[in-house]
Amino acid sequence: MKQNIRSLKFSDFEKIIEKIEEPRYRARQIYRWLWKKNVRSFHEMKNISKRCREYLINNFTITHAKISTQIKSKDGTIKFLFCLDDGSKCEGVLIPEKNRVTACISSQVGCSFACKFCATGSMKRKRNIMSYEIFDQVSLMMDKSFKEYNMGITNIVYMGMGEPLVNYQNVVDSINYLTSKEALNMSSKRITVSTVGVSKMIKKLADEKLKVNLAVSLHSANNLKRSEIMDINNSNDLGKLKDSLIYFYNKTKIKITYEYVLLNDFNDNIKDAQELIQFSKIVPSKINLIEFNNVENSKFKKSTNKKTIEFISILKKENIVVNLRRSRGEDVDAACGQLANKI
Ligand code: SAH
After folding, report:
1. In a domain, 24, yes or no
2. Can you give the CATH number for the domain in which 11 is found?
3. Ligand 1, residues 156, 226, 245, 290: which to mutate, most atoms within 8 A of Cβ?
4. Residues 6+ apart with CB under 8 A from 285
């Protein structure tokens, strides 16, 4: 069976080129055709010798993820369902705002973390998404972004389905494709990896050269409450999380973003806000309060407007940087896991 050429590393290209006795610079040329020009066939690799192209055609394939469904919301948000090579489905979302377009991408088909308020959490993990499939989500949405909003994607968030830090190598490789000069050349400052808070992997990420932003899905700064909604907190509690965040900040000097979904009568009272304030002072950070996107059969509801405003004002009094992320694309099931769950 032919191998998918996009699963190879640059060093693998070098070995192939050496084996078939082509000039060394071919490896870089092939890499560029794949990752900068994003070609669909070997025939398009115009500066590659016919002999080399034939070798590639006989031994490798080039496959790409495809868009299976796309739905545009009244607010301009577009939700995508992508079809991967083996027929697996994952989601992506394009979110237009003034002067920027954010692409939200998936790192796993399903998820093993089963957070109680999350639609993907009810799905079980099917498989990791490969680095090139993560890249494809961006490149497919990039084309759409130009067509729909007259501008390309400016920001990328790993906030779709799955937990990026347990599909670590594919996520790191995909970030390299997105940021390398030989590929998409995006700034790592505009890329955010969002995690349930796997401490060991947060430390590992801190040691990389990548310099991407880190968002931590906190949702409660109280161990008992957090364990109730996020299983991970039983083995990886707030103490461990704190240690890894200190490590991350000391190594990278990048401010952490905490995500906090406001759940009615669960994590939205004054004491919750005070605990969040204490936690957020551990390292320089900001807080994104997220409106809960209703999930079918969920016991949770979104916080009331009144309590949301109160919660924000308590944080602001302490000079905490806080943003309220209003729900986008509700009419197209844009919250994590909602579309794939229905199809
Ligand atoms: N596993 C990673 C990334 C995927 S979830 C993580 O946990 O961060 C991306 C974000 O969406 C997380 O902050 C998650 O808590 C949030 N989220 C999940 N379900 C949601 C819902 N129903 N409404 C609002 N936000 C939700």
Report:
1. yes
2. 1.10.150.530
3. 290
4. 255, 256, 257, 258, 321
